[in-house]
Records
---
Amino acid sequence: MKVKTAIVTGANTGIGKEIALFLGKRGIKVFLASRSYERTLPVINALEKLRGAQKCEWISLNLDSLGSVHTCADTFLKKNASLNYLFNNAGFAGLRGLTKEGFELAFGVNYFGHYVLTRRLETALLSSKNARIINVSSKIHNRVKKLDFPSLRKFTQSSSGINEYAVSKLANILFTCELHRRYRSVGLSSFAVHPGLVDTDIWRTLPFFLRPLLKLRGMLSAEDGAKNVVSCAFDFDTTLSGQYFSKCLPTKPSKLAMEEKLAVELWEKSESWMDQYSR
Ligand SMILES: NC(=O)c1ccc[n+]([C@@H]2O[C@H](COP(=O)([O-])OP(=O)(O)OC[C@H]3O[C@@H](n4cnc5c(N)ncnc54)[C@H](OP(=O)(O)O)[C@@H]3O)[C@@H](O)[C@H]2O)c1
């Protein structure tokens, strides 16, 4: 039987690391895309110890530079492998800034870098039967009441960066819906997922006195958060493509996240930005 392949972004830690281990246990060949080989080495070692696991490969990926995103895609495409699963998982919350090409930092890393990566990997995804794209979003997207396009090209405006994080997670869902509308008829499915409130490094930017409060709200382990994400790859029928999942159930996202016109506008703007920064 042909070995299945997956790319996991942000595979060195947190939910991404657990997604990679889960895929390894299923005998899927995993491409670990992350910023640092050294920090991914423990995951590579853990995957190599799994019985029956395929040899994994590391690919460099820094989502705040489109040059790095293109190089990551080129590295994978040169292997002439088809791609069965793309887990757009990497992300951060609570930092402020701009990406190399001048996108608001959270929007650029959590959404736009993944948009470019996904589009560049289109041929590899389409060459495998029933491929799936899983975009890791968050229920925090519900906070966003309006998508202000000019602010996506400005330095982070809020002092905590949380508003911009919420916008990036809304964009993940709009992207999923539009991917579904454009590619479902050619056999490519897309899912957006809230992994739950998960105990990972993503909370490192939170003031340390607030962290115990989060724990009191009951946090999932990274492994359980990852289970919620991988369920979109294995447990649901492709007829559920285009949907947003929470607690392993198809869930209605915010009204804004379901606006088709907005999803089209975001796609078209992203496409023209991608053309502007192509190599
Ligand atoms: N934890 C939660 O409660 C929660 C809730 C809802 C949604 N999520 C989503 O779950 C996903 C995974 O987060 P996590 O909780 O596992 O957080 P995490 O432990 O902090 O892991 C985040 C991953 O993203 C990578 N990353 C950050 N910036 C990057 C960049 N510029 N280029 C490439 N990779 C980058 C990190 O790499 P480095 O190690 O190099 O920084 C790390 O591998 C995120 O999309 C997050 O929004 C998490």
---
Amino acid sequence: MEKFMGKRILIAGGTGLIGSSLCDLLQEKGYEVAILSRSPEVKNYQTFQWDVERHYLDESALDFAEGLVFLSGENVGAKRWTQKQKDRILNSRIQAIRMLVEKIEKANRKPAFFISASATGFYGGTLSKRFSIETDLPGGDFLAAVTRQWEESVKPLQEMGIRMVVLRTGVVLSEKSGALPKMAKPVQLGLGSALGSGKQYISWIELNDLARLYLFAIENEKLQGVYNAVSPDPVTNETFMRQLARAYRKPFFLPSVPSFLLKLLMGEMADMVLKGNRVSCEKIREAGFSFQYNKLEDYFQNLKQQPH
Ligand SMILES: NC(=O)c1ccc[n+]([C@@H]2O[C@H](COP(=O)([O-])OP(=O)(O)OC[C@H]3O[C@@H](n4cnc5c(N)ncnc54)[C@H](OP(=O)(O)O)[C@@H]3O)[C@@H](O)[C@H]2O)c1
């Protein structure tokens, strides 16, 4: 593998779940890491501030950055999807990237690479068993529209000769935060069951594997374009919840939580759990990446907090 020699990496959204894990890994590997954040001071790492709504960016951030990783954005699972919240989900990503594109265009020195998160939501929620691959067309729902525009907004960087990698990320598994603690809560209370039909696929990736995948994208100059960031073992929601209950040595019940109830509680956001996508990792594996967690069972066997 050809090594990128630049050692200074700027991470927009470096305070989040994926960003914190990536910052620690990069520091461990000898990189100089800085975070682009809405907050002026972030513990542990040098921080540059920005405020996309006010079109403000501390421009010394771009002097620092030999490479950029983009992990910012309003959390899609944080609040009910009102129109205002949908706008926030979309704008916190594309307006931020548009501003970066504009500032990079004017900068004297351009970063060598721009690696951006995206999500497997690009393919749209479905109950299909077919594996989605990177050349597939986007789906037709809200998250598909967001990710499509998100990915589009990165393209001008490619035209500037900056190496661009987009990682279409599945459900990130970590005990710290994100989807898993939310899914584990009813299980730990002894109320584990599948959601809706239970047939929808969850394409997941373990947090440290994802941080390693970002490192792989940083260091492998041949990597360019869109890659799915999911493990080789997508499972149905029913299998996921059953295995989770087993890991916590808790019961698993059928029938599942009915779809109408979840729709009532969550509104349109329920689509995120009632539908899914079976996503292929073949492209990134063929590029030479290997996962530490290939099977969901291996990950669940190592859950620290079991049993409750
Ligand atoms: N976690 C997953 O399962 C998953 C799956 C697929 C895709 N992704 C994508 O990967 C990226 C990183 O995920 P993550 O789980 O690490 O995210 P996260 O923990 O929610 O953190 C993202 C960071 O974005 C910034 N942010 C939050 N709300 C914002 C807003 N309204 N406007 C601007 N910035 C905002 C925050 O940084 P500051 O407060 O420091 O500015 C935050 O630390 C996200 O874009 C996410 O959509 C995540």
